[in-house]
Amino acid sequence: MEFGIKDALDILLVAVLLYYLYKLMKESGTLNIFYGVMAFILMWVIASEMLEMKLIGTIMNQFMSIGLLILVILFQDQIKRFLGELGTHKRWQFLRNMFHSHKAQVTDQKRWVMPIVYACMSMSKSKTGALIVIQQSMPLDIYEKTGDIINAEINTRLIENIFFKNSPLHDGALIIAKDKIKSAGCILPVSHDSNVPRHLGLRHRSALGIAQATDAVAIVVSEETGNISVAYRGELHTRLSSADLEHRLSTLDMAK
Question: At what angle do helices 76-86 and 5-27 cross, to 10 degrees?
Answer without folding.
Answer: 120
